[in-house]
UniProtKB/TrEMBL annotation:
Gene3D superfamilies: P-loop containing nucleotide triphosphate hydrolases. Keywords: ATP-binding, Nucleotide-binding. It comes from Streptomyces humicola. The lineage of its organism: Bacteria, Bacillati, Actinomycetota, Actinomycetes, Kitasatosporales. This is ATP-binding cassette domain-containing protein. The keyword ATP-binding applies.
Length: 262
Protein backbone atom coordinates (compact mmCIF):
# COMPACT_ATOMS: atom_id res chain seq x y z
CA UNK A 1 0.00 0.00 0.00
CA UNK A 2 1.21 3.50 -0.87
CA UNK A 3 2.26 5.75 2.00
CA UNK A 4 -0.24 8.53 2.58
CA UNK A 5 2.57 11.02 3.25
CA UNK A 6 3.86 10.62 -0.29
CA UNK A 7 2.25 13.12 -2.68
CA UNK A 8 0.41 11.42 -5.55
CA UNK A 9 2.04 11.51 -8.94
CA UNK A 10 -1.34 12.70 -10.27
CA UNK A 11 -4.23 14.26 -8.37
CA UNK A 12 -7.45 15.55 -9.89
CA UNK A 13 -9.47 17.98 -7.79
CA UNK A 14 -13.05 18.86 -8.69
CA UNK A 15 -12.66 18.19 -12.41
CA UNK A 16 -15.65 19.14 -14.58
CA UNK A 17 -16.03 18.94 -18.35
CA UNK A 18 -18.95 19.90 -20.56
CA UNK A 19 -19.59 19.21 -24.24
CA UNK A 20 -22.28 21.68 -25.29
CA UNK A 21 -25.36 20.89 -23.24
CA UNK A 22 -23.93 17.60 -21.97
CA UNK A 23 -22.20 17.62 -18.58
CA UNK A 24 -19.74 14.76 -19.07
CA UNK A 25 -17.87 15.17 -15.78
CA UNK A 26 -18.79 16.97 -12.58
CA UNK A 27 -16.47 17.53 -9.59
CA UNK A 28 -14.43 14.38 -10.21
CA UNK A 29 -11.62 13.46 -7.82
CA UNK A 30 -8.81 10.98 -8.51
CA UNK A 31 -5.39 10.19 -7.05
CA UNK A 32 -2.65 7.90 -8.32
CA UNK A 33 0.67 7.34 -6.54
CA UNK A 34 3.91 6.05 -8.00
CA UNK A 35 3.94 2.27 -8.06
CA UNK A 36 0.18 2.09 -7.57
CA UNK A 37 -2.48 0.58 -9.82
CA UNK A 38 -5.81 2.41 -9.67
CA UNK A 39 -8.72 0.94 -11.59
CA UNK A 40 -11.27 3.33 -13.06
CA UNK A 41 -14.57 1.55 -13.59
CA UNK A 42 -18.10 2.46 -14.55
CA UNK A 43 -20.87 1.65 -17.00
CA UNK A 44 -20.86 2.91 -20.59
CA UNK A 45 -21.35 6.67 -20.55
CA UNK A 46 -20.00 7.03 -17.02
CA UNK A 47 -17.31 9.48 -18.15
CA UNK A 48 -14.22 7.26 -18.15
CA UNK A 49 -13.11 8.17 -21.67
CA UNK A 50 -13.69 11.85 -21.03
CA UNK A 51 -11.58 11.70 -17.88
CA UNK A 52 -8.75 10.07 -19.84
CA UNK A 53 -9.01 12.89 -22.39
CA UNK A 54 -8.72 15.44 -19.59
CA UNK A 55 -5.61 13.76 -18.16
CA UNK A 56 -3.95 13.44 -21.57
CA UNK A 57 -4.79 16.98 -22.66
CA UNK A 58 -7.09 15.95 -25.51
CA UNK A 59 -10.11 17.63 -23.87
CA UNK A 60 -8.93 20.00 -21.11
CA UNK A 61 -11.09 20.40 -18.01
CA UNK A 62 -13.48 23.34 -17.82
CA UNK A 63 -13.17 23.51 -14.04
CA UNK A 64 -11.04 21.99 -11.32
CA UNK A 65 -7.35 21.58 -10.62
CA UNK A 66 -4.67 19.08 -11.60
CA UNK A 67 -1.66 18.40 -9.41
CA UNK A 68 1.44 16.60 -10.62
CA UNK A 69 3.79 15.32 -7.93
CA UNK A 70 2.28 17.77 -5.48
CA UNK A 71 2.38 20.90 -7.62
CA UNK A 72 -0.43 22.48 -9.64
CA UNK A 73 -0.18 22.10 -13.40
CA UNK A 74 -2.36 22.78 -16.42
CA UNK A 75 -2.72 20.15 -19.13
CA UNK A 76 -4.29 21.74 -22.18
CA UNK A 77 -2.48 19.87 -24.95
CA UNK A 78 -1.31 16.26 -25.40
CA UNK A 79 2.34 17.33 -25.62
CA UNK A 80 2.04 18.93 -22.17
CA UNK A 81 0.85 15.62 -20.72
CA UNK A 82 3.72 13.77 -22.40
CA UNK A 83 6.23 16.32 -21.10
CA UNK A 84 5.06 15.67 -17.53
CA UNK A 85 5.47 11.93 -17.96
CA UNK A 86 1.98 10.73 -18.86
CA UNK A 87 1.56 8.02 -21.50
CA UNK A 88 -1.60 6.30 -22.70
CA UNK A 89 -2.28 3.05 -24.53
CA UNK A 90 -5.73 3.26 -26.09
CA UNK A 91 -7.99 0.31 -26.77
CA UNK A 92 -7.37 0.43 -30.54
CA UNK A 93 -3.57 0.44 -29.84
CA UNK A 94 -2.91 2.81 -32.80
CA UNK A 95 -0.36 0.47 -34.36
CA UNK A 96 0.76 0.51 -38.00
CA UNK A 97 0.29 -3.07 -39.17
CA UNK A 98 2.58 -2.70 -42.18
CA UNK A 99 5.51 -1.72 -39.95
CA UNK A 100 7.62 -4.14 -37.95
CA UNK A 101 7.92 -4.22 -34.16
CA UNK A 102 10.79 -1.73 -33.96
CA UNK A 103 9.06 0.63 -36.39
CA UNK A 104 5.95 0.65 -34.21
CA UNK A 105 7.85 1.15 -30.97
CA UNK A 106 9.54 4.25 -32.41
CA UNK A 107 6.48 5.48 -34.33
CA UNK A 108 6.50 9.25 -33.96
CA UNK A 109 9.90 9.16 -32.22
CA UNK A 110 12.07 7.83 -35.03
CA UNK A 111 15.85 8.19 -34.87
CA UNK A 112 17.24 9.77 -38.02
CA UNK A 113 20.70 10.52 -39.33
CA UNK A 114 21.12 12.93 -42.23
CA UNK A 115 17.38 12.76 -42.86
CA UNK A 116 17.36 8.95 -43.14
CA UNK A 117 15.84 6.52 -40.64
CA UNK A 118 18.56 4.94 -38.53
CA UNK A 119 17.08 1.45 -38.30
CA UNK A 120 20.20 0.00 -36.66
CA UNK A 121 20.19 2.54 -33.83
CA UNK A 122 16.47 2.08 -33.20
CA UNK A 123 16.78 -1.69 -32.97
CA UNK A 124 19.85 -1.42 -30.77
CA UNK A 125 18.14 1.05 -28.45
CA UNK A 126 15.05 -1.13 -28.16
CA UNK A 127 17.25 -4.07 -27.17
CA UNK A 128 19.34 -1.94 -24.79
CA UNK A 129 16.20 -0.76 -23.02
CA UNK A 130 15.33 -4.44 -22.65
CA UNK A 131 11.65 -3.61 -23.07
CA UNK A 132 10.69 -6.57 -25.18
CA UNK A 133 12.46 -9.13 -23.01
CA UNK A 134 11.44 -7.53 -19.72
CA UNK A 135 7.78 -7.43 -20.69
CA UNK A 136 7.87 -11.00 -22.00
CA UNK A 137 6.40 -10.43 -25.44
CA UNK A 138 7.34 -13.83 -26.81
CA UNK A 139 8.45 -12.06 -30.00
CA UNK A 140 11.57 -13.77 -31.33
CA UNK A 141 12.05 -11.45 -34.33
CA UNK A 142 11.63 -7.69 -33.80
CA UNK A 143 11.52 -7.24 -37.57
CA UNK A 144 8.33 -9.20 -38.04
CA UNK A 145 5.36 -7.08 -39.23
CA UNK A 146 2.84 -6.28 -36.50
CA UNK A 147 0.10 -7.83 -38.64
CA UNK A 148 1.69 -11.23 -37.95
CA UNK A 149 1.52 -10.85 -34.16
CA UNK A 150 -1.12 -12.10 -31.74
CA UNK A 151 -3.44 -9.68 -29.95
CA UNK A 152 -1.41 -10.00 -26.76
CA UNK A 153 1.86 -9.33 -28.56
CA UNK A 154 0.39 -6.27 -30.26
CA UNK A 155 -0.80 -4.99 -26.90
CA UNK A 156 2.70 -5.33 -25.47
CA UNK A 157 4.27 -3.58 -28.47
CA UNK A 158 1.94 -0.63 -27.85
CA UNK A 159 2.97 -0.58 -24.20
CA UNK A 160 6.66 -0.76 -25.15
CA UNK A 161 6.14 2.30 -27.33
CA UNK A 162 4.50 4.11 -24.41
CA UNK A 163 7.33 3.13 -22.06
CA UNK A 164 9.99 4.37 -24.47
CA UNK A 165 9.61 7.87 -23.03
CA UNK A 166 9.98 6.50 -19.48
CA UNK A 167 6.61 7.79 -18.20
CA UNK A 168 5.71 8.12 -14.54
CA UNK A 169 2.03 7.42 -15.23
CA UNK A 170 0.70 4.90 -17.74
CA UNK A 171 -2.99 4.84 -18.69
CA UNK A 172 -4.32 1.54 -20.05
CA UNK A 173 -7.73 1.72 -21.74
CA UNK A 174 -9.56 -1.66 -21.71
CA UNK A 175 -6.26 -3.52 -22.24
CA UNK A 176 -7.65 -7.07 -22.02
CA UNK A 177 -10.82 -6.58 -24.09
CA UNK A 178 -9.42 -8.46 -27.12
CA UNK A 179 -7.23 -10.95 -25.24
CA UNK A 180 -7.78 -14.62 -24.51
CA UNK A 181 -7.41 -16.20 -21.09
CA UNK A 182 -3.70 -17.05 -21.29
CA UNK A 183 -2.83 -13.72 -22.91
CA UNK A 184 -4.76 -11.88 -20.20
CA UNK A 185 -2.81 -13.73 -17.50
CA UNK A 186 0.48 -12.68 -19.07
CA UNK A 187 -0.76 -9.12 -19.39
CA UNK A 188 -1.68 -8.97 -15.70
CA UNK A 189 1.84 -10.15 -14.91
CA UNK A 190 3.08 -7.26 -17.04
CA UNK A 191 1.09 -4.78 -14.92
CA UNK A 192 2.70 -6.23 -11.80
CA UNK A 193 6.07 -5.58 -13.41
CA UNK A 194 5.13 -1.95 -14.11
CA UNK A 195 4.14 -1.55 -10.46
CA UNK A 196 7.52 -2.92 -9.37
CA UNK A 197 9.22 -0.35 -11.60
CA UNK A 198 7.45 2.42 -9.67
CA UNK A 199 5.16 3.44 -12.53
CA UNK A 200 1.69 4.64 -11.57
CA UNK A 201 -0.97 2.82 -13.60
CA UNK A 202 -4.53 3.93 -14.32
CA UNK A 203 -6.41 0.85 -15.51
CA UNK A 204 -9.75 1.42 -17.27
CA UNK A 205 -11.61 -1.87 -17.40
CA UNK A 206 -15.03 -3.50 -17.38
CA UNK A 207 -13.50 -6.77 -16.18
CA UNK A 208 -13.70 -6.79 -12.40
CA UNK A 209 -11.77 -10.05 -12.30
CA UNK A 210 -8.77 -8.25 -13.81
CA UNK A 211 -9.33 -5.32 -11.46
CA UNK A 212 -9.38 -7.54 -8.37
CA UNK A 213 -6.25 -9.32 -9.61
CA UNK A 214 -3.94 -6.32 -10.00
CA UNK A 215 -5.46 -3.06 -8.75
CA UNK A 216 -4.74 -1.52 -5.37
CA UNK A 217 -7.80 0.71 -5.39
CA UNK A 218 -10.94 1.21 -7.45
CA UNK A 219 -12.54 4.51 -8.39
CA UNK A 220 -16.13 4.25 -9.64
CA UNK A 221 -17.63 6.79 -12.02
CA UNK A 222 -21.38 6.99 -12.55
CA UNK A 223 -23.06 9.57 -14.79
CA UNK A 224 -19.93 11.71 -14.77
CA UNK A 225 -19.51 11.77 -10.98
CA UNK A 226 -17.51 9.86 -8.41
CA UNK A 227 -19.64 7.11 -6.91
CA UNK A 228 -17.19 5.36 -4.65
CA UNK A 229 -13.54 4.70 -3.83
CA UNK A 230 -12.69 1.21 -2.67
CA UNK A 231 -9.73 -0.73 -1.38
CA UNK A 232 -9.50 -3.86 -3.54
CA UNK A 233 -8.35 -6.19 -0.77
CA UNK A 234 -11.16 -5.35 1.64
CA UNK A 235 -14.11 -4.60 -0.66
CA UNK A 236 -16.45 -7.34 -1.96
CA UNK A 237 -16.90 -7.34 -5.72
CA UNK A 238 -20.67 -7.06 -5.22
CA UNK A 239 -20.23 -3.70 -3.51
CA UNK A 240 -18.25 -2.34 -6.45
CA UNK A 241 -20.89 -3.59 -8.89
CA UNK A 242 -23.64 -1.93 -6.82
CA UNK A 243 -21.76 1.34 -7.01
CA UNK A 244 -21.31 1.01 -10.77
CA UNK A 245 -24.99 0.29 -11.42
CA UNK A 246 -26.31 2.91 -9.03
CA UNK A 247 -27.88 0.40 -6.66
CA UNK A 248 -25.70 2.00 -4.00
CA UNK A 249 -25.22 5.77 -3.95
CA UNK A 250 -21.69 6.45 -2.78
CA UNK A 251 -21.42 9.86 -4.42
CA UNK A 252 -18.37 11.64 -3.05
CA UNK A 253 -16.40 14.54 -4.42
CA UNK A 254 -13.81 15.38 -1.79
CA UNK A 255 -10.25 14.38 -1.00
CA UNK A 256 -11.34 12.69 2.23
CA UNK A 257 -12.86 9.93 0.10
CA UNK A 258 -9.37 8.83 -0.93
CA UNK A 259 -8.07 9.21 2.62
CA UNK A 260 -10.77 6.82 3.77
CA UNK A 261 -9.40 3.93 1.69
CA UNK A 262 -5.71 4.51 2.43
Amino acid sequence: MVHVSTPPVLALRGISRRFGAVQALRDVELEIHAGEVVALVGDNGAGKSTLVKVITGVAPADEGAIEWEGRPVRISRPHEARALGIACVYQDLALCESLDVVGNIFLGHEICRAGVLDEVSMERRARELDLLDTLSTGIANVRVPVTALSAGQRQTVAICRALLSRPKLLILDEPTAALGVSQTARFLDLIEHLRERGIGVLLISHNLGDVKAVADEVAVLRLGRNNGFFDVLTTPQEQIISSMTGATDNAVTHRKAWEAVR
